[in-house]
Write a structure and sequence with these properties.
GMP Synthetase, Chain A, domain 3, four-stranded mixed β-sheet, alpha+beta, 12% strand, 2 domains, single chain, 219 residues
C-alpha cells in the first residue's frame, strides 16, 4: 500500500492510484527501482534458471557444424548442404543422399559425423545411397557412425532384421503395407514379383496366422 509518510517511496509514485500504477506500461528498470524503493530484494528462480530453452535438432546441428566450420576456416555456404529431414531404421538414423555432398566435408568427416549424430540423438548414423539397378536392388547405404549395419526394425507389428548396408528397406510405403495385409486373399494364389525383405508377404502371413490362432479362419 502507498503511505504518504513513507519516505522511501519514489516521488513519482506519490498520489498515484494503485490501479493506474498496475495498468500503466512500465519499463523493467523502472519497475526494479520501484521494488527497490520498497526495500525489495532479488530472489533467483532456480527452477527457471535450470530450464533450457528447447532447440530443434536442426538448430542444434547447425550451431555445432557452424562452430566446426569456423574453427577449420571453411566456407559458411557449406551449411546449405545440411539435411532438413531424415528417417529412422531401427536405431540407425538415415540421412538423405543429397546432404554433405561437397568434397570439402571429407577433410572433417570424423568430427562431422559425430556432431551430426549428437545433434540427432543417434546411436548409429548412415547416409542413403542409390539403389543398385541389379536383379536384387541392393542397398548402398553408407554407415557413418557405428560398427555394422545389422538392425532390427519394427513396423506394423512385424520385426524386420537385416543388414541395412546390403538389403534395401523402404519405409515410405508403410500405409500400403498395412492395407495389403488387411486384404482377404484366403484361397487365392498371390504372387509377389519382388518380395525383397517381405514388405507385403509378411503382413499377409501375420494376418492369416493370427486369424487361425484366434479362430477367425473361414475353414
Amino acid at each position: 500500500k502507498l503511505l504518504d509518510d513513507d519516505s522511501c517511496i519514489s516521488k513519482g509514485l506519490l498520489g498515484c492510484p494503485e490501479k493506474k500504477l498496475i495498468g500503466d506500461s512500465i519499463a523493467l528498470h523502472e519497475a526494479l527501482e520501484i521494488l527497490s524503493s520498497f526495500h525489495g530484494s532479488f530472489l533467483k528462480d532456480e527452477l527457471a534458471l535450470s530450464r533450457k530453452a528447447y532447440k530443434s535438432p536442426q538448430i542444434i546441428m547447425r550451431e555445432l557444424i557452424s562452430s566446426l566450420l569456423e574453427r577449420k576456416g571453411m566456407p559458411s555456404w557449406l551449411l546449405e548442404q545440411l539435411p532438413t529431414r531424415w528417417e529412422t531404421l531401427g536405431d540407425i538414423t538415415v540421412l538423405p543422399k543429397t546432404c554433405f555432398k561437397d568434397l570439402l566435408w571429407e577433410s572433417v568427416r570424423e568430427e562431422l559425423w559425430q556432431l551430426v549424430a549428437k545433434s540427432l540423438g543417434a546411436q548409429r548414423l548412415a547416409r542413403q545411397g542409390k539403389i543398385m539397378p541389379n536383379g536384387t536392388r541392393d542397398s548402398t547405404l553408407e554407415l557413418l557412425v557405428g560398427d555394422n549395419g545389422w538392425v532390427t526394425h519394427y513396423e506394423n507389428g512385424i520385426s524386420y532384421s537385416l543388414d541395412a548396408t546390403k538389403c534395401m528397406f523402404s519405409s515410405g510405403n508403410r500405409s500400403e503395407k498395412l492395407r495389403m495385409g488387411q486384404l482377404d486373399c484366403r484361397d487365392e494364389v498371390v504372387v509377389d514379383l519382388f518380395s525383397g525383405i517381405g514388405y507385403f508377404v509378411l503382413p499377409f502371413l501375420v494376418k492369416y496366422i493370427l486369424d487361425d490362432i484366434l479362430g477367425l479362419s473361414s475353414k
